[in-house]
Write a structure and sequence with these properties.
This protein is an alpha/beta fold and 193 residues long. The chain has seven helices and twelve strands. It has a single domain, classed as Rossmann fold. It has a seven-stranded mixed sheet with strand order 6-3-1-7-8-12-11, with helices on both faces. The protein has a three-stranded mixed sheet with strand order 2-4-5. It has a two-stranded parallel sheet with strand order 9-10. Helix 1 crosses helix 6 and helix 3 packs across helix 4.
């Protein structure tokens, strides 16, 4: 085990219908570097992972969005899956949690359909991102710049398109989480509010 992220706590924000591999692989990547990952969700208990449209494993929730605070974590990961961010963006506590990470300038990793949470949190304006292609219009309408690239890093925000991009995504989130707070990201967040 390496220790690039030793002592850091990483929040993973997910609910039912999360794309399992987009939760488990980044989780293992930060854990392998010494971080303590925690699953934050809408309700206590377990969430149901999916392999595309098929049920997969269940995962134990560590904290609810009502209990969680960005103050308690060094970084945030938002996995995709169509239903996962779609359900979470309807919960004001989940949306506020995402916004708080950006307002504090903390690094964030988002993959696949996860950028819907950034759109809902009002933190997309002026950011260069990638995502699952169907989110392109939503991102553009929210003031973001959408590109079709394997991984995009913009002021502490790491985005990727799909499960095939996970190796590059995992490498970049570890790198950004090592760096910690980004003054540019915090300044950008304050400029858009």
């Amino acid at each position: 085990m390496a220790d690039k992220l030793q002592g850091k706590r990483v929040a993973f924000l997910a609910t039912d219908m999360v794309e399992q591999v987009e939760l488990t692989e980044p989780w293992q990547a930060v854990k392998n570097e010494g971080a303590t990952p925690e699953l934050i969700s809408l309700e206590e208990g377990e969430i149901q992972g999916f392999n595309h449209y098929d049920k997969a494993d269940k995962f134990k929730v560590d904290r609810t969005v009502e209990e969680a605070s960005a103050d308690d974590y060094d970084a945030l990961v938002i996995p995709g899956g169509v239903g996962n961010p779609d359900a979470m963006r309807m919960d004001e506590n989940a949306v506020k949690l995402v916004r708080d990470f950006f307002e504090q300038g903390k690094p964030v990793g988002v993959i696949c359909h996860g950028p819907w949470m950034l759109v809902e949190a009002g933190v997309m304006r002026g950011r260069r991102v990638t995502s699952w292609p169907s989110l392109r219009t939503d991102i553009l309408n929210a003031g973001g710049e959408w590109v079709d690239e394997q991984v995009v890093v913009h002021n502490g925000l790491v985005t990727s398109r799909k499960p095939d991009d996970l190796p590059a995504f995992n490498e970049k989130i570890v790198e950004e989480f090592c760096e910690g707070k980004h003054a540019e990201q915090a300044a950008s967040a304050h400029a858009t509010t």
